Amino acid sequence: MTRLALSALLACLAALGVATPAFAHTRLVSSDPADGSRAAQVPRQLTLTFSEPVPAESAQVQVTGPDNRAWGTTEVVARGTALVVSVDPGPAAAGQHRVSWRVESLDGDFVSGAIGFTLDAPAAQPGITTPTPPPAGTTGAAVPTETTGATTASGDSATTTTSSATGAITSSVPTSTVDDEGGSSVLLWTLVGLGALVAAAVVVALVRRKREDRPQGDTGSAE
Questions:
Q1: What is the reported pTM?
Q2: Staple 82 to which of 49, 120, 139, 187, CB 3.0 to 4.6 Å?
């Protein structure tokens, strides 16, 4: 009887020893960041170490911030029993973050779990700068100005235009023109000509009058 009971006990232990590996599943051993830790800097890479190797192709890892925004996952690499996950946090907010994972065990079953860590500082935004406003009373950097002037022979004024980065200023300055001088000269010479004609007409009239007033006797004696 004792020998029979001992044999039954050994058979049960053997059965349990064979069945234990079949029912054992993959479990998370450690992580970086660690579960419940605080991070002063935004992590760019997560490491999840399991009790046995897991394939990276079927692994799913997601990080969710306090604003419920999920981080981007750029690459998952299997290194022994660890999964190395490269992430793109973007504008990560400070606060509690959750890392959810789902991996495939060696027996083909999927196992999932989650850890959490606290981010003390938000992610820096590289390449974003705040422009400095210009001083009051200015509209931008000073640039060389270009001044052009043009005067025409028939116009009444000369126009000077100044161009710059902030606008254009046009001013008109009255000037003497060639037409004004020419018109004055023509008028002057017209008056001189008229005066000469009047003087000539007066002279001719006086000469004729003198001839008409000359005595007839003088004419006869002369003949």
A1: 0.47
A2: 49
